[in-house]
Amino acid sequence: MDGYLGEPSGRVPMNAHFKIRAELLAHIRHDLERPHPFAYERVGFVSAAISRIGRGSLMVLAQAYHPVADEDYIDDPSVGAMMGSDAIRKALQRSYQSRTAAIHIHCHGHAGRPGFSHVDTRENAKFVPNFFNVAPHVPHGAVVLSNDSAAGDIWIGRNFEPMPVTRFSAIGAPMWLEGARP
User: What DSSP letter does each residue of 65-97 carry, written as one string?
Assistant: First the structure.
């Protein structure tokens, strides 16, 4: 197993909790709502610390948000937003220098539990594992927000399938908690 997340038995964590300050979440939502000259949606990255909680659980602690710069989008009308190689290079560099997890984030503007589109799933599988080249000691992933909820996947190593984030919480006023739903 990559990094320190595995236990001697090779047991893979079963639960992932994504925790973020309510103020940071509000800032991210506000930024992701900004119009772009040609992309239909905005995207960014969250830098996060990782903590093991007991046996089989991870805590993903969001620390900072980094929007993808306007010039780092590719004009591709077949998708909501397409990041160029400069956006990914900058995120890789940030993860390497800060030794933090990189969590790709974007928003689907509706109420209720969101899900990754087929394009999201395909593209996440292409670029998220690259973060293990620069920061193999922490998991990396992707989160999609809705107007009132979130869903996400975490990769614990390059050679592992993503596992779903099972719980989201925003700490502060107002506090928000969301557990996994079947």
Answer: EEEPPGGGEE--TTSS-EE-HHHHHHHHHHHHH
What is the tens place of the pLDDT at every residue in 128-169?
Answer: 999 999 999 999 999 999 999 999 999 999 989 999 999 999
Q: Distance from first CA to last CA of the chain, Å, rounded? A: 28
For position 174, what pLDDT does the model report? 64
Find the largest Cα–Cα distance for the chain.
51
DSSP string, 15-79: EEEEEEEHHHHHHHHHHHTS--SS-SS-EEEEEEEEEE-SSSEEEEEEEEEEEPPGGGEE--TTS
Mean pLDDT score of the chain = 90
What is the reported pTM? Answer: 0.88
